[in-house]
Design brief:
The complex is a heterodimer of chains A (233) and B (257). Chain A has 233 residues and is α+β, with helices and mostly antiparallel strands. Helix content of chain A is 22%, strand content 29%. Chain A has helices spanning 2-26, 50-68, 218-225, and strands at residues 32-42, 85-89, 93-97, 105-108, 127-133, 136-142, 163-171, 176-184, 193-202. Chain A has a nine-stranded mixed beta barrel with strand order 1-2-3-4-5-6-7-8-9. In chain A, a hairpin with a 4-residue loop joins strand 7 (163-171) and strand 8. With 257 residues, chain B is α+β, with helices and mostly antiparallel strands. Chain B is built from four helices and eleven strands. Chain B has helices spanning 3-29, 49-53, 63-77, 96-101; strands spanning 37-41, 106-110, 114-119, 122-128, 149-155, 158-164, 178-180, 184-186, 191-200, 203-211, 220-228. In chain B, a hairpin with an 8-residue loop joins strand 10 (203-211) and strand 11 (220-228). Chain B is globular. Chain B starts with a helix and ends in a 29-residue tail after the last strand. The chains are: A alpha+beta (233), B alpha+beta (257). The interface between A and B is large, with 57 and 60 residues.
Chain lengths: 233, 257
């Protein structure tokens, strides 16, 4: 009887090991250079609170000042960059680099939790942890601040109370990456706001990798701040 | 076959397949040591940033570099503004030797084809490990930076990184040149080789070897040790933009020192 029990344990251990191997082997590698194209956006209008509706113009001006000041653009602008997004995946962490002024975004997939709120100093990208559910990476982000470009596609803006959930899934045999973003923030959205981007894989990263942002360029500042004159014919 | 024989057979199968499965997983993801993580350079107790930066074996320098070092030191000692160069679009980004010696942790993400290396959560270096050669750093289209052009390959358990294509001048440091610990320079003629090796589960050794016959009389080598911060949280440089403090990053006065 003891031998049968031992045998059962061995078989259980073997099957668990095989399952773990299968999961590891099935884990997709999101690494690559990804770009957004004209048909990459499925963005509905966000269900804004009345307070958020009233704050939009102030937020827009604040964002414009951040652009002028070359402040790190942060989330979600990092994921909506006009340039190519570089995603690099290691077993424990995924890094994402945009060309616009921004911090590298790190998504920890090693099973760690978010730090306690009192330990977490807000950043433009927030603190991200991810876990794999089959072939989909589910990312949870908190710990934002309100610097950089705060505008959220579809309407609304990032605040320190925002909670972002994302799902990443490869499509088209790995040539496309589908990312669905869901923002929850009771001060901004009446209900969670979701939208999806479809990224296309490209072979190379354009140089320079990092765009040089000059805060004290007077001509640039004028372009960004002066109201455009109407076209005359 | 008795039940004992079946048990022995299953056990043997398990023992044989477990290491193979581990190796396969490593092959599929990273058949090399996992260096990803947040790493803090270990200062042996130098006391100040300048002392720490120079706390390496002293290189043998070309006479004109020694003279230039003395000129800059005298100018600083006199309280002069060291570098008033306005930051323009032509100003290169990055400063590799300073980044690798700085107190903010280095954040490494090592994927199969590329290693990202950031500091203070901001962007930093890109090291290509996909077998590509260096870019043509003499081509007009190449934009030199303080990080240069880095390619890497694995030699056993060691990541060897080769960097060329540094910028000859910098705009926004305290000095208009990119200093190498010990008193040298990194510039457009400089070649750097780094060797990254885990010497413990949470300890990373990096050996730097700088070569440039216009700066050094012989290759200049030193090593740093970094400790892993398993629960470290990347921080972000949250300085106010320079539009609010227009002179902050361009000048160094006696009062600030």
């Amino acid at each position: 009887m003891a031998l049968r029990g031992f045998l059962a344990l061995v078989v259980l251990a073997w099957s668990t090991s095989a399952l773990a191997q299968g999961e590891a082997a099935a884990r997709p590698d999101l690494s690559g250079y990804w770009e957004l194209r004209f048909d990459s956006f499925n963005v509905p209008r966000a269900p804004l609170t009345t307070a958020a509706q009233g704050a939009l113009e102030m937020r827009r001006a604040k964002d414009q000042e951040a652009i002028r000041g070359c402040v790190n653009v942060g989330m979600p602008a990092v994921m909506d960059d006009r340039g190519v997004l570089d995603i690099r995946q290691s077993p424990a962490v995924i890094g994402m680099v945009a060309r616009s002024p921004s911090s590298t975004r790190y998504i920890y997939t090693d099973g760690r939790k978010h730090p306690d709120a009192e330990e977490l100093e807000g950043t433009t990208n927030g603190h991200s942890i991810g876990r794999w559910q089959g072939d989909t990476l589910v990312v949870d982000t908190v710990g934002f601040n309100e610097r950089g470009i705060t505008a959220i596609p579809g309407g609304g803006y990032r605040t320190s109370r925002a909670h972002l959930t994302e799902s990443y899934k490869l499509a088209a045999s790995g040539d496309q990456l589908m990312v669905t973003f869901t923002w929850a923030d009771p001060t901004v959205f009446r209900t969670p706001h979701s939208y999806t981007f479809r990224y296309y894989k490209v072979g190379a990263m354009p140089e320079p990798r990092v765009l040089n942002c000059i805060q004290n360029d007077a001509d640039r500042a004028r372009f960004l701040t002066e109201r455009p004159a109407p076209a005359r014919f | 076959m008795t039940i004992r024989a079946i048990a022995a057979s299953v056990m043997a199968s398990l023992l044989l397949t477990a290491p193979a499965a581990y190796a396969q997983e490593k092959k599929g993801t990273a058949a090399v040591p996992e260096m990803s993580g947040l790493w803090l350079v270990q200062d042996p107790g130098s006391g100040s940033w300048t002392d720490w930066f120079d706390n390496v074996p002293k290189p043998k320098l070309q006479p004109d570099i020694i003279a230039d070092n003395q000129r800059m030191a005298a100018s600083e000692a006199a309280g002069n503004v060291v570098n008033r160069a306005p930051r323009t679009a032509a100003c290169p980004v990055g400063n590799l030797p300073m980044m690798m010696a700085s107190s903010p942790p280095i954040n490494i993400v090592a994927s199969r084809d590329e290693v990202l290396m950031g500091s203070e959560s901001n962007r930093g270096r890109f090291i290509y490990t996909d077998g590509r050669p260096h870019r043509d750093v003499k081509a007009p289209s190449y934009v030199p930076t303080g990080f240069g052009d880095s390619i890497g390959h694995w030699e056993g358990d060691t990541l060897v990184v080769d960097t060329i294509g540094f910028t000859p001048r910098v705009c926004d440091s305290r000095r208009p040149v990119m200093l190498v610990p010990g008193g040298g320079r990194a510039k457009d003629t400089t070649h750097l080789v780094e060797r990254y090796r885990l010497v413990g589960p949470d300890e990373l050794s990096v050996t730097f070897t700088w070569e440039d016959s216009t700066v050094f009389l012989a290759p200049h080598t030193y090593s740093y040790t970094y400790k892993r911060l398993p629960e470290g949280i990347p921080i972000e440089n949250n300085e106010e933009p320079a539009v609010a403090q227009p002179d902050r990053q361009y000048t160094t006065t006696k009062a600030e020192k």
